[in-house]
Specification:
Number of domains: 1
CATH class: Alpha Beta
Structural class: alpha/beta
Low-confidence stretches: none
Distance between the termini: 40 Å
CATH architecture: 3-Layer(aba) Sandwich
Order of helices and strands: HEHEEEEHEHEH
């Protein structure tokens, strides 16, 4: 279906970041900063934070701006399942489960819905060449 899933994902932005964190040592924060380093529009998703890295947070996936077309997922697998269901319901069909966020049932549901699902190893931080700097 998607000849190059990563390229298709990157072309589908702006991006949501489910599992965004204000803790700069956490991957949810690094992914958000990685998008910023590349000049890509990204929107953090966090249930209680107002802002992360100076960007206004959406409380959940349904609250993301309408133009978001792709979602990075950096959550524990049980949360990933809920995030994927919300993304699919919202019409977001480009999903990148970062290592450790994968859920077999969420992957299966997303694929059954025709989504572009990246999982099982490739990390956005490596693909985009993230540099952790202060």
């Amino acid at each position: 279906m998607f000849t190059d899933p990563i390229q298709s994902f990157l072309e589908a932005g702006p991006f949501g970041v489910a599992g965004a964190s204000s803790d700069r040592s956490k991957y949810g924060n690094k992914v958000l900063r990685c998008y910023a380093q590349r000049g890509l529009e990204a929107h953090p998703v966090h249930p209680s934070a107002e802002t992360i890295e100076g960007r206004a947070c959406s409380r959940d996936v349904p609250s993301l701006p309408a133009e978001v077309g792709a979602l990075s997922i950096i959550t524990p697998p049980p949360v990933t399942e809920k995030v994927v269901d919300a993304a699919l319901a919202r019409g977001i069909h480009h999903l990148w489960m970062q290592p450790g966020a994968e859920s077999a049932s969420a992957i299966a549901r997303a694929r059954a819905a025709g989504a572009n699902v990246i999982h099982g190893g490739p990390c956005l931080l490596v693909v985009l060449g993230f540099r952790d700097r202060d």
